[in-house]
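My main concern about presentation is that the manuscript never shows what a single data entry looks like. For the editor and my fellow referees, an illustration may be useful. For illustration, here is how one protein appears when written out as sequence plus structure tokens:

***
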Amino acid sequence: MKKARRGEDLNLRLVSSLLVVVAEGHFGRAADRLFVTAPALSQQIRRLEEQVGVELVDRSSHPVVLTAAGEVFVADARPALEFAVRAMNGLDALERRRARRLRIGFINGAAGSLGRAVIDSLHAEVELVQLDWSQQVSAVASATVDAAFVRPPLPVLDGVVLERIGVEPRVVALPRGHQLAGRASIEISENRWDCAGFE
């Protein structure tokens, strides 16, 4: 009978919980984020440590930090978890295509009336998902959403295509009496005023 290798039955949900503990540096705060009790979360991390056969976090440290073994483990486990999440997101995206459902991401003010017109033109059920600024492109790349209304500047990611749906004028708000306040337009290159002009 073949002996199971250490970590062969690794539970990725437990890995995800470990990353939250590391990010928070505190079991109580991590538990709040995960909607579990601190003792339950501590048991989850103990179960993960039993699976991999080493202690991953130093519970005596405040904030809670990774052990040397934990550092090695997390360095490789984090991208594995990201790939697993991307794989599941891909399956979800396939199901949405089959059901003619679209999940569209947005950040506040990203599309306005233009976005409404695009959504109304689609022949599919649409679910809107609010994104943080930093997720505008990565949410599409990871298949968390099928498409997103975004605003530049944006990183370039393989597999993500950007299409311009409109151009909005830029506006600047200036205090009354500012040296540029009476102008009908201002070029971006004219940013030679300093903070003293806003006092």
User: Anything to note?
Assistant: The chain is about 40% helix and 10% strand. Residues 68-98 form the longest helix (31 residues). The helical segments are 12-24, 27-34, 38-52, 68-98, 112-121, 138-141.
